[in-house]
Amino acid sequence: MTAHKRYGMSIDIDKCNGCGACMMACAVENNIPPVPESANDRKGITWIRVYKTDNHRAYPDRRTAFVPVLCQQCGHDTPCVHVCPQQAVDVDPETGIVGQMPERCLGCRYCMVACPYHARYFNWWDPVWPAGMEKTLNPNVAPRMRGVVEKCNFCHGRWHAAQQKAAAAGIREIDAADYIPACVEACPTGALRFGDLNDPSTEVARDAALPESFRLLEKIGTQPKIYYRSRRDWVREIASAPRPDGKDQHRG
Amino acid sequence: MTTTRRNLFKFVGGGAMGALLTPAPWRLITDTALWSENWPGIPRPARGEITTRFTHCTLCPAGCAVRARCVAGQPVSLTGVNPHPISRGALCPWGIAGHQLPYHPARVRQGPMREAIAAIERAIRKRSAGERVAVLDLRPGRTVSWTYRRAMAALDGGLYVTPPQSAYAIDLAAAKTVVSFGAPLFDGWGTPGNVFAARTNFRLIQVEPVESRSAALADIWLPIRPGTEAVIALALAGEIAVAEAARVTGVDEKTLGAAKEAMAGGPVLALAADPASPLMNWNAKLGALGHTVVARRESPVPDTWKKAAPATQMAAATDGTIRVLLIDESLPGGYIPWSEIAPKLAPDAVVVAFTSSSEGYARHAQCALPTAVYPETAEDVGPAIDTVAAVFRISTPLIAAVVPVVNPGQFVSRIAGLPPSDALRERADVIHKAGSGMLIGYADGKSTPVKAVTADDFWKTLNQGGCWMDSTGKQTLPGKLEFTASAEPAQDELPLTVVATEPRRGGLESTLLSKLERESNLRLSADRVALSPVDARAGGIENGARCVFETARGRLSVAAMIDAAVPVGVVEVAGGPRVADLCGANGRARVVRA
Q1: What's A33's domain CATH number?
Q2: Total domain count, chain A
């Protein structure tokens, strides 16, 4: 029997230049359509979104960092799973990936409210591509209909493809090189890494153990599987979203 | 037991109530949504045999190697090619979605080809002495560029014009400290994979007024007042006092001192946003010439091609003398503001643009003729600025053109009366005959000496996924250090200095770029500008308000974004042909409420 995986990602914020290659690769891989002209940053669909953040100081002391935020794949008390009345969200025990089943989703958006990372997106419009462009869609991922919530699933289509390849070769374990999410593959700076956090020999597991490594909103206890790292103090501080008045509230 | 009407109702009612306590109705609700996945409005991705093909991206001069995943022959995703020694498996956001460009809704899909040929031939026939026929090549260095040059040499009074070009290539891997004067090193300057591979070896001192993506990742950022780059160069060169430079540029002395200290660590390279900038001449004094700044090398061409018109600048043409202007805008490249071109045209000039986009010169030309777009394009990619070796790589078409297109090279050849030829094959044969360098195949990642392959195999590999690369012999460039501080005084009518921070090369851009612009505000879109809170408050402008961006040459309707990262007195724009036409060389503007 194969050991259960715990897929996760490490993101080096000090390397990210905010180019957006990860966002484009994600949209291409997962058949995420461009939104209508009237849409804004609240109605767009970006399974991975690079946020531009800063140290809150005035020019010229202001410094910027780019923080890619995707579904954090919470490993404990996964909020979206708890609130979904449709069982449209689940955590795969084999991989640790938080999955979303759009065909079950009723579009109530409880999960969006529950998600502390704003990593879920509602489909406000029918998926429409300019005439002819639908030929360029990825056949491994079905476009989602209007009125459902969607989010990053670590390119689950690629995981299935890797499994099929392994099965065809008669082996149980997939080759790590066969399963890399599109954003990680596309990152030109090498800021994104992906792998099994349960395997201490993987780069991502080693990154997670680094002293400058941290997770977003660690204090709320959801145990995300996305590990960020930065040598800049102010970047690490914003990850815990401290309240401006200093009265930080902790869960429990 | 007797069946009565009452018992029947009890049974049905009880059954219905009981059913509510089972999972069945809830499951039914869940599954009612299943049908919607396949309703007619949802596109169904095509199925078919999955294959892998290789080509080169033509969206910028970097020419990154591309691996295309194709379904039934149609590319559905593009990634980089790891064995490629320069692009190293990386692609930029534009390149990743390049396979969608042929279907772009704003693509130029038809043009008056016959009328254009007739008008050009009439103009050539009737032109007076001294009037010229010119080709403006926005992406020089390609094989088709040689065709243009040969055609202009064959025509009486032919002129081959390019935007300002750098004659040098940069060996980033050999630098220990890079002083960048606004060059977007990490965002569109060179080949992304090559730049990031070299990044761990050099310290970056970024000199520019706003914190661009390169400044954000720089080791030291010098936030200068716009237009004072030369003063920083003089201070770092030790030709003026640091205190004086700090006073003029607004950068504090401590930061300037740290930058000067960082330069002591090893070979220093100076880069400017404009490759023709005199700031590049500082490299002579820094000792970079021949080491990190070397002559740019082109792959060999047939001897018969060398009787070609020289490349000239638009400024060198006499005013009012260009009777026919053919503009090759088929690939995104440099842009010369229309205000610099218009005076050179004869009163009854014919202007034809070969383009896929209606945003660039198509706005000014009498005829805009549609061309192939990447990945329909079949041509080579010229040398990139960060490629020291001579290279020859072909952008092999992944699909046939989806609209009727004009081949600009064949069009110009016909006008000049050149015989039809397969210029790419001719050049490949000359390279193969020379016998030097290596052939790199992308499918297996192997490098093979050119001498070990036949001419046909060489050509086949170039077309099916491979490139030719020569040895990296470096050639020195002459240069000198000449600086003058050229900070422009503020003007009351146009109080803001325009700073373009986004790498826009014109041409079509994927509709998915909305993810980076409107859907996330990660990048500034072409219809937005960013202002400091102080300037916005002074103009009574609120965040997101519709405004007019006004320069001495015209106006543009934009949305204003307020950003505390923008310094006072600066308006940040995305760049592109429209802004270039509006701003020209004098980048000053004002933003007022619409």
Answers
A1: 3.30.70.20
A2: 1
CB–CB of B79/A186 below 8 Å?
Answer: yes
Q: Are strands B447-449 and B50-56 parallel, antiparallel or unpaired?
A: unpaired
Alpha carbons within 13 A on the beta-carbon side of B264: 5
The first and second tokens of residue A218, run together, are: 């660690």
The sign of the dihedral angle between the CA atoms of B576, B578, B580, B586 is: negative
Angstroms from A78 CA to nearest CA on chain B: 21
Write out the H or E segment, with its range, that includes residue B588: strand B588-593
Residues lower than pLDDT 70 in chain B:
1, 29-39, 472-492, 504-505, 585-586
Tell me whether residue A11 is in a domain.
yes
Structure tokens at B485: 């501080």
Find the domain containing A13 and state its range.
Answer: 7-238
CB-nearest to B223 from A27, A60, A130 is: A60
Check CB contact of B74 with chain A, cutoff 8 Å.
Answer: yes
For residue B330, give every residue at least 6 positions away whose Cβ sits within 8 Å of its Cβ, in sequence order, or none: B354, B355, B356, B371, B372, B373, B377, B408
Task: Give CA–CA dist B427/B143, Å, rounded.
Answer: 8
Q: Does residue B457 belong to the interface with chain A, where contact is any CB pair within 8 Å?
A: no
Specify whether the backbone of A229 is left (phi greater than 0), alpha (psi in -120 to 50) or beta. beta
Q: What residues pair up with B590 in beta bridges, in sequence order?
A: B550
Contact B438, B453 (CB under 8 A): no
ipTM of the complex: 0.93
Q: Identify whether A110 is part of a domain.
A: yes
Distance of CA A38 to the CA centre of its chain: 26
Give A248→chain B minimum CA distance, Å: 26
Query: With b meaning 16 or more CB within 10 Å and e meaning fewer, what string describes B458-476?
Result: bbebbbebbbbbbeeebee
Interchain CB distance below 8 Å, B514 and A39: yes
Q: How close does chain B come to A237, measured CA to CA in Å?
A: 18
- Measure CB to CB from residue B42 to each of A15, A59, A145 and give the nearest one: A145
B26, B31, B96, B206: best to mutate for the A interface, most A CBs within 10 A:
B96
Q: Classify each residue of B14-31 as buried b or exposed e, where b means 16 or more C-beta atoms within 10 Å of its C-beta.
A: eeeeeeeeeeeeeeeebe
The DSSP call for residue B564 is: T
Strands B554-562 vs A213-214: parallel, antiparallel or unpaired: unpaired
* 3-state secondary structure (DSSP) of residue B272: strand
Q: Which residue in chain A is spatially nearest to B520 when comparing CA positions?
A: A41
Nearest to B465 by CA among B88, B91, B53: B53
pLDDT digits (tens, 9 = 90+) for B84-114: 889 999 999 999 999 999 999 999 999 999 9
Per the domain annotation, does A54 fall within a domain? yes
**pLDDT tens digit sequence for A184-230:** 999 999 999 999 999 999 999 999 999 999 999 999 999 999 999 99
Residues A55-61: contacts with CB within 8 Å, 24+ apart? A55/A234, A58/B564, A59/B223, A59/B532, A59/B564, A59/B565, A59/B566, A59/B567, A59/B568, A60/B223, A60/B250, A60/B251, A60/B567
Task: Output the 3-class SS for B451-474.
Answer: HHCCHHHHHHHHHHHEEEECCCCC
Q: Inform me whether the C-beta atom of residue B96 falls under 8 Å from chain A C-beta atoms.
A: yes
Q: How far apart are CA B590 and CA A252, in angstroms?
A: 53
Question: Does B46 contact A59 at a Cβ distance shorter than 8 Å?
Answer: no
Report if residue A249 sits inside a domain: no
How does pLDDT run across B398-438, given as a tens digit for each residue? 999 999 999 999 999 999 999 989 999 999 999 999 999 99
**Cα A70 to the center of its chain, rounded Å:** 3
